[in-house]
Each structure stands twice: as C-alpha cells, then as structure tokens.
Amino acid sequence: MTPAQLTREHPVPGLVVFQPRRGFRYAMEPFLLASWSLEPCLPASAADLGCGSGIMALLLARMGVSVTGYDVRPEWIDLARRSAVQSASPATFVLADVRSVQAAAADLALLNPPYQAVGCGPASPDPWKAAARTELNGTLAELIAAGARLGRRLCVVLPQARADEGEAALCAAGLHLARRCDLDDSLSLLEGDRGEGPCRWERASLRVGGGWSERALGLYARLGARLLPPTT
After folding, report:
1. Cα dist. 230→89, 158, 206, 208 in Å?
2. Helix, strand, coil percentages in the chain from 3-state DSSP, rounded to 5
3. Domain chopping of the chain, boundaries
4. What radius of gyration do the chain's Cα atoms show?
5. Cα dihedral across residues 211, 216, 218, 222: positive or negative
6. Average pLDDT of the residues in 116-143
7. N or C: lower Cβ tally within 10 Å for the chain?
8. What is the pLDDT of residue 114?
9. Rounded distance, CA 185 to CA 34, Å?
C-alpha cells in the first residue's frame, strides 16, 4: 500500500503501527485481550494468531516478551513487519495459516478471531474487512485448536453471543477453562490452560456513566496505553 493509503498510529509511546486508512482497523479488543492475558503472569514467549496489523504482538514485545505473529494474508504481514521496523521491535511476523503451523508451544497464545461465521450476515465487499470479520480462513473451533497446540495458555476474545461456543471449543481442544471475563453485554475474554479446577469468572463494565470504568482504564494502563474519552 502507498503511504497515502495508510495511517501511522502511536498507541503507546515509542510504538508505531501502520493501518489501512480505509478498511479494517483495530479497536479495543486487542488492548483488552493482551492486557488481560498478562494478569496471571508475564510470559517469556507468545504467539499472536491471525495477528492482522500486529498490534498485540508489538505491545507484548515492548514488554520484553518474545513474540511471533502469524497471519495468512501477506498484506497484513507486510504492514506488521513495517511497524516492527519503525518501532525497533523484536517481534517476528510469519506468513502462515495457523492451522498448519508446526512450532514449539509458546507460554501464551492470543486469538482475536473473526466474529462472524460464513453465511451469518452480509459479507463486507472490502477484502480486508471480510477476512477480519468472517471465518474465511478457519472456523472458531479450528483456530482454537491451533491455539491450543501453539500455546500452553490460550486467551481468546469473542462476542458474548459466541462465548459458550468458545468454551466448548477450548474443551474439545483439550484445554481447561481457567478464567472468563464478561465485559458488559458485548465481549467475553476466555483463558484455557492445561490445568484443572474451578473457573474464575468475572463480570465487569467498560463504561461508568459517561466515561470509562476503572477496570477498562487499568487494562490499558498495564500496557502503557491511554484510552481517549468515549465518543458516544
């Protein structure tokens, strides 16, 4: 893409992330998922599955984690690599379908998958948005199975309407549901690991009154990021 087709974002000091000016752009989910995944511990290594712009991998690499981001679309890998160079980040980005990647399991795998199954709702005419929003390159169950193989812990963000489906996929992939966080009535964060015991289930709000909640602000602060005031 040409420079005129891109924006240059600075989500945290010292970090540069290139995104298409038009088309799919990251929102809150990668920040919420990346920060929440760090609450049990800071992993030594991580895998970002379907990394897109590379925002989660770049955020974790900035904190000293050895991260590899995978994506099946070469245009995303190109942008993520450009962002890593501009940010002087050691994050590595690999063009690959995570369903066929053979690699040693990292301490942590992160997955912000497409939220819409094929045939459920209209497909975007924009190929970037279509691939990011619709399961064109693997079902939720297939992507979670890949995450279970590539990470000793797997953290996933999903719309709450698909959270139970995500839990079932974690179980089918041989992982135990260790944590779940439901954010308002919109998103669910799930963590599967290789342990056992009861699930730690949290319900939290992202907004309070006309502003962000302390929970939302704290998740961003852990990454050194700042939330702008809500627009609506």
Report:
1. 30, 21, 10, 11
2. 35, 30, 40
3. 3-222
4. 17
5. negative
6. 67
7. C
8. 84
9. 20
